[in-house]
Amino acid sequence: MHPKRLKVNALGLFCFGVLVFMLIKSQGYAVNQKGTLTFFCGKMGAGKTTKSKTLALEKNAVLISEDEWLSAHYPDQIYSFDDYMTHSARIKPFVKLHVQSILKTGTNVVMDFPANTMNQRAWFNQLCHEIECNHALIYLDLSNEQCLLHIAKRRTEQPERAQFDNEAVFYHVTNFFEPPSQDEGLNMVHIES
Q1: Which residues contact 69 (CB under 8 A, 6 or more apart)?
Q2: Are residues 54 and 64 both part of a single domain?
Q3: Phi, psi (5° rounding) for residue 110?
Q4: What is the tally of structural domains in the chain?
Q5: 158-164 contact pairs (CB < 8 A, 24+)
Q6: Host H or E run for residue 79
Q7: Confidence grade of residue 158 (pLDDT, cut at 50, 70, 90)
């Protein structure tokens, strides 16, 4: 092939690539853009699961629920708070890689996993930092009384949860709760009720 013809073909190919890129951008498609991760902080009964389901629908995002992962991977193996802590820690490495893979495709993810302690929030922050994606922490700031009312309603609607959805468990779990602070470097939306 003639050397000048190669230059024209290479230039033509380059121009074609630029035109395709511009067309993709003009149609609103993301180019190498990662999805946004949304996660929640709030005491037991604050409405994290309800809000995560609503937000996932609104954002057309993938919803990933810790309760669903735990029940699928450890059916009938969680009978205490310690059991929960053990099994929750076991799924975290797999969940992290799974969520990062989804976010890398440009798809938004809403996680119904607690971000109720500094360590839990640091895990979310690391997940996002490693792949350089955006995130939003939704802090549902409700009083103990409001949370206990939600728990009582949930216990009535879902009697199978009565073992864990009670006042004693609420106060036990609340002992570990650490409200988020701006010092943690998170993009936080604070919702008070």
Answers
A1: 91, 95
A2: yes
A3: -115, 125
A4: 2
A5: 163/79
A6: none
A7: confident
Instruction: Give the C-alpha separation, 159 to 162, whole Å.
Output: 5
The CATH number covering residue 111 comes to 3.40.50.300
Q: Report how far residue 57's alpha carbon sits from residue 187's, in angstroms, rounded to the nearest whole number.
A: 21
CA distance 132 to 125: 10
Q: What is the pTM of this model?
A: 0.80
Q: List the structure tokens of 123.
A: 């895990």
Residues 143 and 104 in one domain: yes
CA distance 34 to 84: 31
Tokens in use for 44?
A: 């037991």
Measure CA 55 to chain center: 11
pLDDT band at 14 (very low <50, low <70, confident <90, very high): low
pLDDT value for 100 = 97
Tokens representing residue 102 in the block? 């989804």
Whether residue 163 sits in one domain with residue 81 = yes
Range of the structural domain that residue 26 is part of: 1-31
As a whole number of angstroms, the distance between CA 130 and CA 143 comes to 34
Whether residue 79 sits in one domain with residue 1: no
Q: Structure tokens of 18? A: 């630029």
- CA-to-CA distance for 68 and 73, rounded, in angstroms? 9
Whether residues 16 and 104 share a domain: the answer is no
